[in-house]
Amino acid sequence: MTNIYIDASNLHLSSKELGFEINYKKFIGWLRQKYKPTYIYLFIGFVPNNKNTYKKLSRLGYNLILKDAVIVGSKKIKGNCDTEIVLQMCLDFFDNSKKDFILISGDGDFKCVVDFLINKNSNVLVLAPNSHRCSILLKRTSIRITYLNNHYHKFST
Known about the structure:
Elements: E1 2-7, H1 8-17, H2 24-35, E2 39-46, H3 51-60, E3 63-68, E4 70-72, E5 76-78, H4 82-96, E6 100-104, H5 111-119, E7 123-128, H6 136-139, E8 144-147
Parallel strand pairs: 1-2, 1-6, 2-3, 6-7, 7-8
Antiparallel strand pairs: 4-5
């Protein structure tokens, strides 16, 4: 059984930097076809004006984990979900004895959970949204890293 954990902010900003906009319907289809996951979690900052977007993502099949976002400065929205992702991965490991984990993020803050899962003999794959921004901390682990740079054409608008 495989679960996928998506750092929505990391995916969005990385794909945007590369000139792509994610089509989330195509993306979930690609993930399901390629990895056959049990659950696909999408961790995203909650902004009240985006309720319709969250409903649409949920209807597409994403299991949304929302975190209250705050506005920093004039208009920058901050909804960092790193802790929620780590917690969900650990809960799934202990509650469901999951052995296969796919993390969609290039953030080095996830090195601790990656190391933990590797030490527990779990299979971990990182799908880094941008090869140029994947943390050296993740690159130094023994996990497989696949870069999405060459895959965006399959699921972008």
